[in-house]
Amino acid sequence: MKLGLVLLLSSISGSASADSWICISEAATGFTFVGNVYVSEPFKAGRTYLMRPSKASEIEFTGIKGMTYTFETIGSNEGPYAYFTGDVKIDGYVVPSVGGSVNVEFNPSTLKFTLASTQSYIFQMEANKFRPFFEIGSCSEM
User: Which of 54, 56, 84, 115 has the smallest number of CB atoms closer than 10 Å to its CB?
Assistant: First the structure.
């Protein structure tokens, strides 16, 4: 598993640096639509994310002023993804994302993160295709 992760990380573009983190979800839960109601269900943990400095093209595309970091799924072009502004390396502070398809909070002191995907419920998207979920996990600096 570690060798596979090392190979995967080596294939990531040069955007990863000392100011980047690899993050892995450790637990996940969510909701699925059954009949006419949402019911809770376990979701698969173990998704891998990269938190890295944002590219100029991403800043231009989103229009988020002061955007500094991007949180993206590794191995998927579909996301989820989130964006941060300002310094995400302030010890003792939890840094919330400011945009994207999910809400992410990151603590640079503990290297823990939370990820919440709620837009599918709030905007009443296709119930069984886009399901609300929540993940918790840890990050390691690259």
Answer: 56
Domain range annotation of the chain: 17-141
Reported in sequence order, the residue ranges of 54-130 that DSSP labels E, i.e. its strands, are 67-73, 81-85, 95-96, 99-100, 103-107, 112-117
Q: Which residues of 102-115 are buried (b: 16+ CB within 10 A; e: fewer)?
A: bbbbbbbeeebbbb
What's the rounded Cα separation, in Å, for the pair 106 and 9?
A: 20
Cis peptide before 108 (omega within 30 of 0): no
| pLDDT one-digit tens code per residue, 4-55 | 444 344 444 444 455 899 999 999 999 887 877 888 988 889 999 999 999 9
**Separation CA 98–CA 100 (nearest Å):** 7
* Structure tokens given for 113: 């993160």
Q: Taking 60 as the threshold, does the pLDDT of residue 80 lie above it?
A: yes
Contacts of 65 (CB under 8 A, 6+ apart): 85
Question: Does residue 118 carry a pLDDT above 70?
Answer: yes
pTM of the model: 0.78
